[in-house]
Amino acid sequence: MHQHTLSLFDTDVPNDPPEAKALEVHRRLCKEYDCPIRYFHVLDPLAELVSALLSHRTRNRDSGLAFRTLRERFPEWEQVRDAPVEQVQEAIAACTWPEQKAPRIQAVLREVGERSNGDLSLEFLRDWPVAKARAWLENLSGVGPKTSAAVISFSNLRGKALPVDSHHHRVAARLGLIPDSLPVGPSHRMLESQLPGDWDAQMVYDNHQIVMRHGKEICTWRDPKCRQCVLLDLCPHGQARLAGKRPAAHEGEQPAR
Q1: 140 with 111: CB under 8 angstroms?
Q2: What is the pTM of this model?
């Protein structure tokens, strides 16, 4: 990482349109974290949906263990759907709130079957436009824009959708790409609209990955490493913080798990 210095009196941030700023952020972070980022999931869309539900407020290591254990104990999704909820809860014990996630996953599997003529598969989404596929997914109980985008982008559908997690959201808010008060859910549409329309799925995926990584490693919830940040001259939060005018984290924000 680079070390950046900033005069405490130099707090001017370029007032570029958000689209231009988002593009410059992407360019710098791609250089920093070496794009393109190789896809790391090979799950089908239904498996990715369950994985995403398990990952909510859970570390990747723990949600990954919960998913693997679930699949080892119940190789077929019909078995997960029809098992006593206590057995599903036991299988996913490694994730947070398994007592809530077990019945939710079973309910989602029932909904998928009911809306797909009994077929527990989301392969039909492969032939749909992304907007239509995401709308279908978000009509499932407990599925919001982050989960629908994850299914489209992370699964072997390899579609063009931008997931926004708490790290991505924090970086975007501190940069002024979205208002501080905008919740994560509505931020998906705003942040996605700032990316060039001719980008392919890989470039959108890269954007999520590099902004998320920057939030984990540099723009952290507590004690962000502003002087090491390649985006400091674009960041009103970082400049104000180094000038002693702003605390280290947004008021009311909670650290991501």
Answers
A1: yes
A2: 0.86
- The per-residue pLDDT for range 189-212, each reduced to its tens digit, is 999 999 999 999 999 999 999 999
CA distance linking residue 173 with residue 255, whole number of Å: 14
Q: Where exactly does CATH 1.10.340.30 map onto the chain?
A: 45-154
On whether the 45-154 domain is CATH 1.10.630.10, my answer is: no
Report d(CA 233, CA 13) in Å as an integer. Answer: 6
Angstrom distance (rounded) from CA 60 to CA 66: 10
Quick one: pLDDT at residue 247?
A: 62
Backbone angles phi, psi at 78, to 5 degrees: -60, -35
18-37+163-242 topology per CATH = Endonuclease Iii, domain 2 (1.10.1670)
Peptide bond into 36 cis (omega under 30): yes
For 66-112, what is each residue's pLDDT tens digit?
999 999 999 999 999 999 999 999 999 999 999 999 999 999 999 99
Task: Supply the DSSP string of the chain, one letter for each residue.
Answer: -------TT--------HHHHHHHHHHHHHHHHTSSPPP-----HHHHHHHHHHHTTS-HHHHHHHHHHHHHH-SSHHHHHHS-HHHHHHHTTTSS-HHHHHHHHHHHHHHHHHHTTT----GGGGGS-HHHHHHHHHTSTT--HHHHHHHHHHSTT--------HHHHHHHHHHTSS-TT--HHHHHHHHHHTS-TT--HHHHHHHHHHHHHHHHHTS-SSS--GGG-TTGGG-HHHHHHHTTSS-SS-TT-----
Residues spanned by CATH 1.10.1670.10 within the chain? 18-37+163-242
